[in-house]
Recover the amino acids of this structure.
């Protein structure tokens, strides 16, 4: 008997979500962003779905790209932060990756690389995010330098929005409008790759040629104030486990490390096979809850490494083997994340390696 914890991955929902986003993206080249093992969903198992539905994979670590190639992925792969070392240029060339160029050092590596076949590069422009990239006034010089390197092919100019979400306040120093204005003069140099999920959904004025879709493919809204139903996407990951034990507490009795929960009434607790080593946050949160037997039950006490406790006093059907959902269809990951003052992205990516991904 294995532990009952699992992340059930609904691959047909993934396919429908991508189709929905492609309606918004129109004819633009569609990069599926699959960094962090497809936002925690497990990249390799999902390759057949991506192969059916997207134009290329955008990922972070060259080794993830190598794995995808070895698993049979033939379409384009883009390294969204470029190479991290000079040696990786040869890896990129060997495995036919496209790569981002965001700093001088990467250009020097290319100049020394003596590429034997064409390598497509994307030039990152820093339009106000201020993490990676060249400022707009440097782009022309960078393009000239790249174009002078044998076998380097400049594919487009790439930039990233800091605030593409619909309900983010528009009085921030960096808005989509300002970021687009910074790019305007560069449009003469060629194609643009700008949009993340938020921009695909809410900023058609980006007028780019390629998009990079992430979170909404996985059925999660990039904007915590807008539900996935409103976007017409469905959660792909259902993170769940089962009740493995029950305890009836009398008033004044406590549960777990630190005795954080003390029963104020005769209380039925259920012990669930999931802990912080599985990716459920240990951090205490407000309104932490799970879905069990058709109802929500609060998570109480400190989460342990391998177990957590829920109060099922008001869920009479809860018993040994009852399915417990941490997030997924019945409880959105954004809602779960809000209890911990974080975003759905973080919870998805934090689901531990030891949790089996079960494709359905
Ligand atoms: C993660 C990432 C994306 C995708 O963002 P979503 O909000 O998940 O759509 C796009 N572009 C870059 C450069 C990224 O790092």
């Amino acid at each position: 008997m294995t532990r009952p914890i699992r992340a059930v991955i609904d691959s047909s929902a993934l396919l429908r979500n991508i189709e929905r986003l492609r309606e918004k993206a129109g004819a633009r080249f569609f990069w599926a962003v699959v960094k962090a093992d497809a936002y925690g969903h497990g990249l390799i198992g999902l390759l057949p779905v991506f192969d059916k539905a997207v134009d290329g994979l955008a990922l972070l670590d060259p080794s993830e790209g190598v794995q995808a190639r070895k698993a049979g992925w033939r379409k384009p792969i883009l390294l969204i932060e470029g190479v991290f070392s000079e040696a990786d240029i040869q890896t990129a060339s060997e495995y036919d990756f496209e790569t981002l160029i965001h700093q001088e050092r990467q250009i020097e590596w290319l100049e020394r690389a003596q590429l034997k076949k064409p390598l497509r590069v994307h030039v990152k422009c820093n339009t106000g995010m201020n993490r990676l990239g060249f400022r707009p006034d440097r782009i022309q010089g960078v393009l000239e330098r790249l174009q002078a390197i044998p076998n380097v092919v400049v594919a487009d100019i790439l930039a990233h929005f800091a605030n593409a979400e619909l309900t983010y306040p528009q009085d921030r120093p960096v808005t989509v409008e300002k970021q687009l204005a910074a790019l305007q003069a560069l449009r003469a140099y060629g194609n643009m790759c700008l949009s993340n999920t938020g921009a695909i959904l809410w900023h058609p004025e980006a007028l780019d040629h390629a998009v990079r879709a992430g979170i909404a493919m996985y059925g999660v809204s990039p904007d915590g104030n807008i539900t996935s139903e409103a976007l017409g996407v469905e959660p792909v990951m259902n993170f769940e486990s089962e009740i493995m034990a029950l305890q009836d507490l009398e008033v004044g009795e406590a549960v777990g490390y630190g005795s954080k929960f003390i029963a104020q009434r005769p209380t039925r607790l259920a012990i669930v096979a999931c802990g912080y080593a599985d990716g459920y946050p240990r951090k205490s949160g407000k309104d932490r809850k799970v879905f069990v037997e058709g109802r929500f039950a609060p998570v109480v006490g400190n989460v342990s490494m391998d177990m957590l406790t829920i109060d099922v006093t008001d869920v009479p059907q809860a018993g040994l083997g009852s399915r417990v959902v941490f997030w997924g269809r019945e409880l959105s990951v954004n809602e779960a994340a809000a209890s911990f003052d974080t975003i759905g992205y973080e919870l998805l990516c934090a689901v531990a390696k030891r949790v089996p991904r079960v494709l359905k």
Notes: Residues 11-223 form a domain with the TIM Barrel fold (CATH 3.20.20.10).
